[in-house]
Amino acid sequence: MRDSAEFTRSESRFTDRFTAGGRDGRPVEAGRYRLVVSRACPWASRALVVRRLLGLEEALSLAVADPVQDERSWRFTLDPDGRDPVLGIRFLSEAYRARDAGYDGGVSVPAIVDVPSGQVVTNDYQRITLDLSTEWRAMHREGAPDLYPEKLRDEIDERMEGIYQDVNNGVYKAGFAKSQEAYDAAYSRLFARLDQVSEHLAGQRYLVGDTITEADVRLFTTLVRFDAVYHGHFKCNRNKLGEDPVLWAYARDLFQTPGFGDTVDFDHIKRHYYVVHEDINPTRIVPRGPDLRGWRAPHHREELGGRPFGDGTPPPPPPPHEVVQPL
Fold it and tell me: Where are the alpha helices (DSSP H) in the chain?
């Protein structure tokens, strides 16, 4: 029986698949769909990184929500007149209700919306990036890396499952625990897994094989938020990321790789967590730190070998309208 004090993540409500030619789900079609994200959200950040690495900017347009949502859901207040310029809506919840008029559940990002109908297609954050890698191949840029190579999928899946349970979702289990026992259990699993991953990465540059894979993307989006929010805000404070030499160097290596750090907005990250989670931070004061300059420091991970993009190439710079303020 599940401890009622333990945080439980809601399952995705809309899970339509994208498949090449529409053989089993929605057809992949350039320009038809819009990816809605918040740069604050680690689950949405997976999609931001993968979209950049694969060069899908022209095929799949991007809507960025305000990092501070209200009771009406994620808001498009960063856009003129507070409306998404493509979908014409003020709140992501409108796309959810366009799909299901009676829907009254949570509204999450990432979400992919069908532009012609205005309906959400999927908010399945676990599946979206895998489909972008496998089913959207015809839209990939020349030189795009294979983030989910078939011969390594079993190992990638195994790595991702452990990291999801204990790290990606583990920080939330610690931060939103409603009892000391639930918090202690999540805390223990989190740092046991991080220690295991650190030991693994001490001898190789990436989690699986010698190139970046989906597993690295999923670990990165938690690590990049660790010192800024999870260490203090979620009480994941055995040590900071910057105090683990291996994980800190690994995270910096990815951050400095085109497609990773250029999607990260620390201002959005901090404002979301510290302002929205009033039950944890009732004052809504956003801390000034940490000092972010270390993210650009040399990491020396290249000495372990590896080829970040395999036989491919780095992505070009992001489109001007998607550039994040640099550190």
Answer: 42-54, 93-99, 125-134, 153-163, 170-175, 180-201, 214-225, 245-255, 266-276
Q: Is 248 annotated as a binding residue?
A: no
Residue with the two structure tokens 């209700």:
97
Buried b (16+ CB within 10 A) or exposed e, 239-273: eebbebebbbbbbbbbbbbbbbbbbbbbebbbbbb
Q: Contact, 39 vs 65, CB < 8 A?
A: no
Structure tokens at 34: 């819009």
Note the pTM of the prediction, 2 decimals: 0.96
Query: 43-78, pLDDT tens digit by residue?
Result: 999 999 999 999 999 999 999 999 999 999 999 999
CB 202 within 8 A of CB 212: no
Round to whole Å and give the CA distance between 110 and 128: 8
What residues pair up with 73 in beta bridges, in sequence order? Answer: 70
Give the separation between CA 242 and CA 109, rounded to whole angstroms.
28
Q: What is the structure's pLDDT at 20?
A: 85
Among residues 33, 41, 96, 148, which one is catalytic?
41
What integer pLDDT is reported at residue 1 of this predicted model?
38
The domains of the chain, with CATH numbers, are 18-139 (3.40.30.10), 150-322 (1.20.1050.10)
Crossing angle for the helix pair 180-201 and 153-163, to the nearest 10 degrees: 140
Mind listing the pLDDT tens digit for each residue in 81-101? 999 999 999 999 999 999 999
Residue 2 pLDDT > 70: no
Q: Is position 236 annotated as part of the catalytic site?
A: no
d(CA 179, CA 165): 19
- Of 103, 148, 164, 172, the catalytic one is 172
